[in-house]
Every structure is written in C-alpha cells, then in structure tokens.
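Same chain as my last thread, 116 residues:
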Amino acid sequence: MRGGSAARQARAHDRHDRPHPARRPRPPRQARRSATDRMAGGVCGGLAEYSGVDAVLWRVGFVALTLLGGSGIVVYLLLWVLLPPTAGEPDGATGPLEGLARRLHTAVNGSRSNPV
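reply #2:
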C-alpha cells in the first residue's frame, strides 16, 4: 500500500512544479438587446442570453409584473433604452421605436457603450 501512496505524492508534486499557462483575462460580459430572439425590443432575448434563463420565462415575468401593478411595462421600457443593441445588428433594419431607443440610449450613456 505504501508504494501507491508514494506514487500519488510524486504525481501531485509534478503537477505543482509545472508552470501554469498564461491566461488572458476575459472582458466582462455585458447584457445587450438581442437581434435574433426579439418580439418587441429584444430585451427578453438579451436577458436570456446574458443570464441563461429562457426568454419565455423573462416574458412571463414582465407580463406578471404588468398585471400585478404595471411596473413590467416601465421596467421593460427602461431596459429597452438602457441596454445597448447587439454589436452585429444591422442599422437598416430598425423601425421608428428602435431608432428612438438608440437615440435615447446614446443620450443617456453617451458614445462610450456603443456597439463595436
């Protein structure tokens, strides 16, 4: 039994002696409105991509908040303005409300968080 223990200790010692590969720090994830999973402004789709919770559950939550006091509409509209659009979203496919949301987002946040 002692032989197995010594071999295990040797392997553990070897693991600690190896240099660790350099890891690049990942940039922090940012919640964005979805360009593909959208019904109105892409807020629920963007929240789903960011959190990993299905977009249908986000939509049900906003409807529940709306029915329980109307705050769902206010929160959705605020997120529509505050969340930047997806970086690959085409500019030509915007409607009048999307254009308004982009202008408000730029006015509130400035050009610092525009998509790259």
